[in-house]
């Protein structure tokens, strides 16, 4: 049956970039015979305006049923003073939590045409294509006990880093599965030298590897050394798997290897559903960018590349994902630039819609 795709454009530039993705989804239906059963719904501030909640129960149920969910962005100044319980971000958090999306995939890919945009030297980043897999539902951001407690005459801030074997096992498997579709290499990062959770992490990753993925090359690195290597020689990596806290930091660091926030896609995957596909939410890394919303300045590429990830990881259409990524690469090589991609040398930027159309043209030519 036709795979289903639930689209949640959200707020600010979310609907603007998603409109370009819609054109591309339709292109694959018409030209590549890859039809999706697409439905759209509200999330974030847009959902709050309509229902008084940033994600309605009905939308949550549709997300649970969908083969993949594609989200734009949520939030904006209009909603800043809302009660925490109904803030736009809560819509996104509810999706992640109830779908139990434990593996956050953050690729860092450097298109040759943008290599001079990186904060590092061209040679270090040109052609870079790595994937950070961050554990997303456990670790120090969730561990108990937590809180600010009184101890004698001063207060103590407490968080607990805590990982169960099964939590490590499932994210390790996600990383090894990914590696098999990519460069067949996983580097696991923790601090087994100073943390108990790190010792267990290394042990479980090693066991999962030996039992189920001996064909994949596995290495281990302390996370601090990993941060250094990411900046020194990032191309040595293929897939990096790490915990929630280290992954948060390492993925932001990797993002700066590639240039603009407007270029970065992400995916969050959960357990396989009855049809074998993982629960999945795809979204650009950027937010709703209220400073440029409504002006046709948003770069739609992060959202377009998020759809490419959906093609690859939810629908097993790796070749079509490659086709879409090559189209983006071609458009950049031709010099098409939204304002966020303009260097100091200047030039004439194109609009959100023009960028989407340029990608469509490149797809037509593919
Ligand atoms: P942001 O990512 O929205 O914007 C940061 C800067 O990058 C801005 O100058 C913006 O114009 C630029 N930018 C972002 N995406 C771009 C794109 N596609 N093309 C061109 N330029 C782009 O982060 P900020 O400003 O911290 O947050 C704005 C709102 O978005 C807040 O309400 C925040 O809570 C929300 N947010 C939502 C996220 C999500 O939906 N996943 C993630 C981050 C923030
Ligand atoms: Mg962060």
From TrEMBL:
Which EC class, in a word? oxidoreductase
In this chain's numbering, which residues are marked as the site (Important for catalysis)? 141, 191
Q: Which domain of life is it from?
A: Bacteria
Q: Which GO terms describe its cellular component?
A: cytosol
Reactions that this protein is recorded to catalyse: (2R,3S)-3-isopropylmalate + NAD(+) = 4-methyl-2-oxopentanoate + CO2 + NADH
Binding-site residues for substrate, renumbered to this chain: 96, 106, 134, 224
Q: Which cofactor does it need?
A: Mg(2+); Mn(2+)
Q: Which Gene3D superfamilies match?
A: Isopropylmalate Dehydrogenase (3.40.718.10)
| Main location group | cytoplasm
- UniProt keywords, alphabetically: Amino-acid biosynthesis, Branched-chain amino acid biosynthesis, Cytoplasm, Leucine biosynthesis, Magnesium, Manganese, Metal-binding, NAD, Oxidoreductase
Pathway annotation from the record: Amino-acid biosynthesis; L-leucine biosynthesis; L-leucine from 3-methyl-2-oxobutanoate: step 3/4
Q: Where does Mg(2+) bind?
A: 224, 248, 252
Which of this chain's residues are annotated to bind NAD(+)?
Answer: 76-89, 287-299
Record-listed E.C. numbers: 1.1.1.85
Instruction: Relay the cofactor remark from the entry.
Output: Binds 1 Mg(2+) or Mn(2+) ion per subunit.
User: Its Gene Ontology biological processes?
Assistant: L-leucine biosynthetic process
Instruction: Supply the InterPro entries for this chain.
Output: IsoCit/isopropylmalate_DH_CS (IPR019818), IsoPropMal-DH-like_dom (IPR024084), Isopropylmalate_DH (IPR004429)
Q: Per the record, a Pfam family?
A: Iso_dh
Annotated GO molecular function terms are: 3-isopropylmalate dehydrogenase activity; magnesium ion binding; NAD binding
Taking every annotated instance into account, which residue ranges of this chain make up the domain Isopropylmalate dehydrogenase-like?
A: 4-359
Query: What does it do?
Result: Catalyzes the oxidation of 3-carboxy-2-hydroxy-4-methylpentanoate (3-isopropylmalate) to 3-carboxy-4-methyl-2-oxopentanoate. The product decarboxylates to 4-methyl-2 oxopentanoate.
Q: Which family does it belong to?
A: Belongs to the isocitrate and isopropylmalate dehydrogenases family. LeuB type 1 subfamily.
Quaternary arrangement and interactors, per the entry?
Homodimer.
The record, for HAMAP family, names: LeuB_type1 (MF_01033)
| Protein name, as recorded | 3-isopropylmalate dehydrogenase
**Organism of provenance:** Roseovarius spongiae
């Amino acid at each position: 049956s036709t795979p289903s795709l639930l689209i949640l454009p959200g707020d600010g530039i979310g609907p603007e970039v998603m409109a370009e993705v819609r054109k591309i989804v339709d292109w694959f239906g018409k030209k590549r015979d890859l039809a999706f059963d697409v439905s759209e719904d509200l999330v974030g501030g847009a959902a709050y305006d309509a229902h008084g909640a940033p994600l309605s129960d009905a939308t949550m149920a549709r997300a649970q049923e969908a083969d993949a969910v594609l989200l734009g962005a949520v939030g904006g100044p209009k909603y800043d003073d809302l009660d925490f319980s109904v803030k736009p971000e809560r819509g996104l958090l509810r999706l992640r939590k109830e779908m139990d999306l434990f593996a956050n995939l953050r690729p860092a890919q450097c298109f040759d045409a943008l290599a001079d945009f990186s904060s590092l030297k061209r040679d270090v980043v040109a052609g870079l294509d790595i994937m950070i897999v961050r554990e997303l539902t456990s670790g120090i951001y969730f561990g108990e006990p937590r809180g600010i407690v009184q101890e004698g005459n001063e207060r103590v801030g407490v968080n607990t880093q805590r990982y169960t074997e099964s939590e490590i096992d499932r994210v390790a498997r996600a990383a090894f599965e990914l590696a098999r579709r990519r460069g067949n290499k996983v580097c696991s990062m923790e601090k087994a030298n100073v943390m108990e959770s790190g010792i267990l992490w290394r042990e479980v990753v090693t066991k999962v590897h030996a039992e189920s993925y001996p064909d994949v090359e596995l290495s281990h690195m302390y996370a601090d050394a990993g941060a250094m290597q990411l900046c020194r020689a990032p191309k040595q990596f293929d897939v990096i798997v790490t915990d929630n806290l280290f992954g948060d930091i390492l993925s932001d660091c990797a993002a700066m290897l590639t240039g603009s926030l407007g270029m970065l896609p992400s995916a969050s995957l959960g357990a396989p559903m009855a049809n074998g596909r993982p629960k999945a939410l795809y979204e650009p890394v950027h937010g709703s960018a209220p400073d440029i919303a409504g002006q046709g300045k948003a770069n739609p590429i992060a959202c377009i590349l998020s759809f490419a990830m959906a093609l690859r990881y939810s629908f097993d259409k790796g070749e079509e994902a490659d086709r879409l990524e090559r189209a983006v690469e071609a458009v950049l090589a031709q010099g098409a630039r939204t304002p966020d991609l303009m260097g100091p040398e200047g030039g004439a930027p194109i609009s959100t819609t023009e960028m989407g159309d340029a990608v469509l043209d490149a797809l037509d030519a593919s």
